[in-house]
Structures
1.
Amino acid sequence: MSLPDDAATAAPLQVRRGDASAEELAAVIAVVSESLAREQQTAVADEPAVSAWRVSARGVRSDLRRDAPWGRWAG
């Protein structure tokens, strides 16, 4: 049996004290749902932290040329 999308992601709601009516529960669910929707729309992900090593590290150099002699000692 598959659940609808809303039921699959819904968090359980538990009344700890008192006797809430269906209308009161619906009002709480509506307010919390709207609050979560607004928060998701305005949420901004933090920029990933970059280590000092990555900031200062240069790119990997290219391979050495094997056909080029080494300076003065080339002979």
2.
Amino acid sequence: MVGTTLAEIRQHVESLASPDGPYVVHCGRTGERPIPTAGNRFESRTLAERAASAAGQYRAALRRYDPRLPHYDLVVSRDVEPRGSDGRESSDSDRDRHPGPGVGTELEERSQHSPLVEFCHRVAAAVFETLCDSGHRDVETAVMDVYFELAETVDDPDTLCLCLLESMAVELDQRLTPVEQAALFTEAATRLSPTESVGDPVSTALATLEERGLLSGYSCSPSLVDLDDGTRAVDVRLTNYALSPRNGRLPVFPLVLGVYRHESEWPLSSLRAVAVADGWELTLVHSRDSDPTDLASVPIEPEA
């Protein structure tokens, strides 16, 4: 099963990593550090080479879902900085080429878009793994059937990845109950690389979406807490949100997944979406007691 394989490979890479290690795995052509080795360092060149090999296997497995997943020529370097940060390129004496399965056969021509592509694949992989492990293979199959149809006609990799997320939101909404959606996102959030939460979980999740290119700006209101109802609400405004409405509903699960990743005491239970002139206004409601409503996508309400 691909999902299990992805999870096991990622855990293997993490077991090889050391926070203060001097070696990193990156693309020898672009300097990028793709998943699952992104953010990891390794104590020795040998361990880093093992991680590079595992990363090749991981991306080959993930490519079964998306044949257009970028190929990287993975190399091991000591304290390398990504190419483009200072214009320098690692010397041959300071790196060992270590191509893994499915790696190094193609240069990603549009590396400037890779943060969006990598984010979409990271989110999709976490959800796919969880669907596999939770017995929802029918949902996984339905998403991929739609996605492969789109892949035959959509050439732009950014657009195709966004279509993947949009299709996934539709299938999750139609095939899973709100309670099942909440359980799915709770588990999928644990499969994403852990990060240190700084400040409000909603703002942290939105900052990630902005950094990865899913929106160009956002603003958040202060949280409003209703002690009688046991709820906490946050109003959010999104500018240039990259995901498009489907059937009168707005895909929101990447944001939901990000909030679940950082929030435990006040689970996100419902969202409202209103179209405004320059984007979207969302109301996110956190509740400790209420059952969740739809979380993958939400109905678009008329502006008041």
3.
Amino acid sequence: MPWRIRKSFKIFAAGSSLRKRVAYSLAIVRLILVPVIFLAVYYLFVMGRIVDRIVNVDAPAAKLAEQASIEMLEARRAARNYALFRDPEYLQTNQKSLTSVRQILVRIRDLEPDDETIVQQGLEAVTLYQQRFAVAVSTMAESGQEPVERIREAVLAYQKDLDDLVKAARHERRAQLIRELRTRVGSFDTRITEAIHVGSSALRQVTPDLRASSEQTLQLASELEKRNWARVQLDHQQARQLIHRAEWGLSIVSAIALVFSVWVSLILPRQVIQPLVSLKEAVDHAATGNYEVEFELHGGGEVVELAKSVQNLTSLLRRKP
């Protein structure tokens, strides 16, 4: 009869079944990725809101304010041309530009409710300008005479000044000549306006108020433009800060997730596979013909039940002659 050695095997398994433990392991592995995915989605959502505000609110409002200034300048140019030529087409151009200014201001108010006060002031300034220009038009209609002679004299005087400047240019430096030319060119509109106002005291009284209301509209439009471009810059700064926080946040969470996944990969396989390895060693030992096998069982589940079955089998084989 061959010599037989009794050997004991420890088989420790958790109380839950092997299927549940594998399912738990897969669930934990998936849960590791949840913080990373959540932070990525969160930062993408916040960045999307910032970009949407820049593209659809702040930048369009700034461009609209700039367009309002352009339309107001066009209205002033048309008013000046009407005073010179008394052409009704310039009246239509003036009214069309003022209507555009109103529509633009309303659109800015819809985009930026915080600018409602400034927009309302701008609308009131446009209304005041329109009323004062109507008074100026009425005054010019009552005078009934076009200031052609006074305008001609103003043009001749302006031409003489330019001729004198050109004659004296030989004795002046180029930079000084350019400054003089700019000054003279800028004074042309002033001379024409003064020539128109000479014969009409009523028109002289209306013109300063008309200019003041138009300047107020331009100042308010400029203020709206500055405020909205400032908002664009603030949104850009917030976007840069968000990118910086996202880089740090995702790096930290990814590092924690990596460490946790390494720990899980070391612990969970040992709990799942180690009982099966011990059971395989016991079966291999019994396969050599040595049925003196004892099991020290701990826990429960499929592995423990299998170990009990192997233990019963070896006990039965030991009792056979």
